[in-house]
Amino acid sequence: MGRLLIGGHTEILIGPGWPDPLLPPRSDREKAVVITQPGAAAVAARVAADLGAPLLEVADREQAKTMASLNTVYEWLGEEGVGRHDTIVAVGGGAVTDLGGFAAATWLRGIEVVHLPTTLLAAVDAAIGGKTGINLAGKNLVGAFHHPSRVVIDLDTLAALPTPIRLEGIAEALKAGLVGDSRLVDLFASQGVEADLEEVVTRAVAVKVEIAGSDPRDEGRRMVLNFGHTIGHAVEFTAGLSHGPAISVGMVAAGSISAQRYGFPAAWLTDLIFSLGLPVAVSDLSGQVIVDLIGRDKKRTARGVRMVLLQAVGAPVVEVVAADELGHGLAAVGIG
Ligand SMILES: NC(=O)c1ccc[n+]([C@@H]2O[C@H](COP(=O)([O-])OP(=O)(O)OC[C@H]3O[C@@H](n4cnc5c(N)ncnc54)[C@H](O)[C@@H]3O)[C@@H](O)[C@H]2O)c1
């Protein structure tokens, strides 16, 4: 299995199958418990059997990241007698790694968490970098930084993902390449959506490891990982698109603004995103609604909106974008 380390605290193992032993060896651990979601239940059952651990299935998708769901987890941890030296194993997509990570960050003031991401998005993004949390009135409003001791990325599980779930992660992996690894972008350009999964995952994880590791508390440089997200989030909120497709549209818009400023090859990027089966435009969205939503975002300044742009592949910059440039970017994705 390929192995990466973040800051000496997280070991990331990438390969088909699981390592033996599955958890990092520790003499003081008495037990492990497994938290999962419906789509990952079969994988989680194997993990639980392997570890001889109890298993809790929480609600699916964002319903997992609620206060009620967190409360269910806390009560269960109490019933199972999970102690200071025990381990929560989060088996699932980003909703489970965020919830399980936050429960681990707060239970008895912090216990070990190990992530087994079962979606491509969780493997290349959510499980890496130590951010955990749940939603209240806003998404991820309550959270903590808490690094997993180990992340096990089983490529066999990811290879079997249904296409829509896989595409969510392809969009984030492409974004990782655009901000930090031109060879990953070349890989998508030459092999399309069938690009070698091990290389895609390893390269995208390496970008997240490097950038998150250089800004562990999300105080500056990590923002480049938001390429496509400022407009993408507004599109996700209004167009009913899921996250990956919405940020694809956001990347096309940000690429178009980057083209105006720096001569970035926006048409090439649009074609690449389209070739991966991701959307490059939306219809019937009001520009004013999108602008208002972006304006509510904390990235707004008096001169405009702070956004990630690309001077070139692998050369992201965070810049203030004025209203007319934003309008140009929105027009490029059909928002007028
Ligand atoms: N902490 C971070 O840094 C970070 C970064 C990015 C995203 N996130 C969070 O991650 C979440 C999104 O993650 P996600 O896209 O993995 O969504 P998710 O966890 O909601 O999972 C999406 C769907 O995939 C199903 N699923 C999981 N594994 C499967 C498998 N092997 N086969 C078939 N179906 C499977 C799930 O049951 C669910 O229906 C969001 O809550 C987001 O806020 C966190």
Helical amount: 40-55%
Bound ligand species: nicotinamide-adenine-dinucleotide
How large is the count of helical segments? 13
Going across the biggest sheet, name each strand in turn: 1-2-9-6-5-3-4
Structural class, judged by helices and strands?
alpha/beta
Write the layout of secondary structure elements.
Layout: E1 2-6, E2 10-15, E3 32-36, H1 41-51, E4 55-57, H2 67-79, E5 87-92, H3 94-106, E6 112-117, H4 120-126, E7 131-134, E8 142-145, E9 150-154, H5 155-159, H6 163-180, H7 182-191, H8 197-214, H9 229-239, H10 243-262, H11 266-275, H12 287-296, E10 300-301, E11 304-312, E12 315-321, H13 323-332
Parallel strand pairs: 2-9, 3-4, 3-5, 5-6, 6-9
Antiparallel strand pairs: 1-2, 7-8, 10-11, 11-12
Helix pairs in contact: 3-4, 4-6, 4-8, 6-7, 6-8, 6-10, 9-10, 9-12, 10-11, 10-13
The structure holds nicotinamide-adenine-dinucleotide.
Residues 37-40, 43, 60-62, 65, 92-96, 98, 118-119, 121-122, 125-126, 129, 131, 140, 157, 161-162, 165, 168 line the site of nicotinamide-adenine-dinucleotide (NAD).
